[in-house]
Every structure is written in C-alpha cells, then in structure tokens.
Specification:
The chain is an alpha/beta fold and 260 residues long. The protein is 32% helix and 17% strand. Strands 3-2-1-7-8-9 form a six-stranded parallel β-sheet, with helices on both faces. A three-stranded antiparallel β-sheet has the order 5-4-6, with no helix packed on it. α5 links the parallel β2 and β3. Bound molecules: 2'-O-acetyl adenosine-5-diphosphoribose (OAD). 2'-O-acetyl adenosine-5-diphosphoribose binds next to loops.
Length: 260
C-alpha cells in the first residue's frame, strides 16, 4: 500500500495513532474538548496565526483591543467585516459533527470549551459548549447597554458603516476583546469540565492566548491529553498522541474506528 495514494489509509504510524485515539475515547466516559480557530478553518473561517491566518495576512491584532475600539471603532468594523461574512456563511464541518457524534452516537459526556465566536459547535448539536470569547449572536451598545441580535447589524457593517446607536454609543459584538475579562461563569464551567474529564482533546489552537491556554492544565492527574493541530503547540510534549493534520479527518477516522 502506498501512503497517500487514492483510496488508501494514512501512513501506518498515523493509523496506529488513530487506533490509539479511538481506544482512549472508548475508555473515557467524559471527554472535554478545548478548541480554537483551527476547528473552523475547514468551514471556511480563517484562523489567526497560521501562514494564511488573519494576523499573518494584514489584519492587525489591535482590532480586538478594547482601548483602540473605544477610541475609534472604525478599523474593527472594517477589518472584521470579512471575518463576520465568513462566519455567517459557515456551516459545521466534519470535526464539529464528529464531536456531536461522540455525544449522540457513542453516548459520551461531552463538554466543549471553545475560543471560537462562530457558534458552529452549537449548530452541530453539541449541548454543553462554553464560548470563552463570547459569540457573534448578540451585540451591546457601549453607551446605553441596549442589546440586539448580531445579525441585525450586518447590513450596516457590510455597507462599510459603523453601527452607531442614537445614544452616541456603538454596538460592539458580544465577543471578548484584549483588555476585557472572559465571562466568569463560562470560564468556570470550562475549567470544571476539563477537571472532570477522563480525556482532554485540544484541537486547532496555538495555545498562545490566556486564560484559555491554561485550561488543559486543569485536567486530572492521569487524564490523557491529545493534540490535533497542524503546527507545533506548547502542549505537544505532554500529549499521549499528537496529530499534525486536519481535525475533520482525524476525528472522522476516530469515530469510524469506534464503529458508532
Ligand atoms: P490561532 O490562529 O492562534 O491557532 C490556530 C491553530 O490551528 C494553528 O496553530 C493552526 O496550525 C491550527 N489549524 C488551523 N487549521 C487546522 C485544521 N484544519 N486542522 C488542524 N489544525 C489546524 O487560533 P487560536 O489559538 O484559536 O481571540 O487563537 C486564540 C485567540 O487569538 C482567538 O480566540 C482570538 C485571537 O486573537 C480574540 O480575538 C480575543
């Protein structure tokens, strides 16, 4: 069998790694996932720090800076336009569906702590999702606190305008900017889920943004961690298994190996 030729399985070592992952999943009643932007690239949403990610292709990191937004929200809405367009058009991918399948078809207790604001885990049917950085579902006026559905702003934003409110404030999507605290209860739920899990899977995150990057460290002693990320992460050397390839592929193969 030639590795990589059409219709063949992945490299033998990789097949063994998938078997090992399936075995870890089989032995776990509770699985916690910590996910990042790489989870959604297969749905067409760019990540941040890959060679093709937003920060590497001209979007300044400062657009998510709270002080900068308060001084002038214009740059945020200009740069975020493409990202929000991609989020609105996106649908859950094979990776999101595989996680929901572990919950629905394999009968696992599944918790997902995600840094993603796109709601794709929720759309895939995963019940316990902790969106650590908020979501695009809602937006709140910085002046009077009026809250509206995020989608109601897109026509204005798409037209290149800033969604000002008549009170003089501006509608800011309910996503966490640098300089803002994470939603306390959500962070706590995520931390408890990781601490209670028999197995922790870390998917598509560079683990460079805190406090989300600390979450895998709350796993129980002896609870294995598995990393699926195209590029190296600081957690790789602690991981029972590391995959440097597509999350959708790896999770689909693992679910197939489970036979559910
Ligand atoms: P990053 O862009 O830092 O990391 C995404 C990781 O996913 C990269 O290391 C990629 O190699 C990997 N990756 C991409 N696509 C993949 C795929 N299909 N399969 C496997 N791996 C893949 O994104 P995050 O770690 O999520 O915060 O970034 C954390 C935070 O930084 C974001 O929530 C955002 C950003 O600034 C705020 O905006 C507050």
């Amino acid at each position: 069998m030639t590795p990589g030729s059409p219709g063949t399985s992945p490299l033998p070592s990789d097949r063994a790694a998938v078997e090992r992952l399936a075995e870890l999943i089989r032995g776990a009643g509770r699985i916690a996932f910590v996910t990042g932007a790489g989870m959604s690239t297969e749905s067409g949403i760019p990540d941040f720090r890959s060679a093709t990610g937003l920060y590497a292709t001209g979007t300044p990191e400062s657009i998510f800076d709270l002080d900068a937004f308060r001084r002038d929200p214009g740059p945020f809405f200009r740069y975020a336009r493409g990202l929000f367009e991609a989020i609105l058009a996106a649908r859950p991918n094979a990776g999101h569906r595989a996680i929901a399948a572990l919950q629905d078809r394999a009968g696992k207790e599944v918790d997902v702590a995600t840094q993603n604001i796109d709601t794709l885990h929720q759309q895939a049917g995963t019940r316990r999702v902790y969106p650590l950085h908020g979501t695009v579902e809602w937006a709140t006026c910085t002046g009077c606190g009026d809250r509206v559905a995020g989608e109601s702003l897109w026509d204005v934003v798409r037209a290149g305008r800033v969604p000002w409110h008549s009170c003089g404030g501006v509608y800011k999507p309910d996503v966490v900017f640098f300089g803002e605290p994470l939603p306390e209860k959500t962070l706590w739920q995520a931390r408890c889920a990781v601490a209670a899990a028999d197995l922790v899977l870390v998917l598509g995150t560079s683990l460079t943004v805190y406090p989300a990057a600390l979450l895998p460290g709350f796993r129980r002693r002896g609870a294995p961690v598995v990393v699926v990320n195209r590029t190296e992460t600081p957690l790789d050397r602690e991981a029972a298994v590391v995959f440097r390839r597509s999350i959708g592929e790896v999770l689909t193969e693992a679910v197939e190996a489970l036979g559910v």
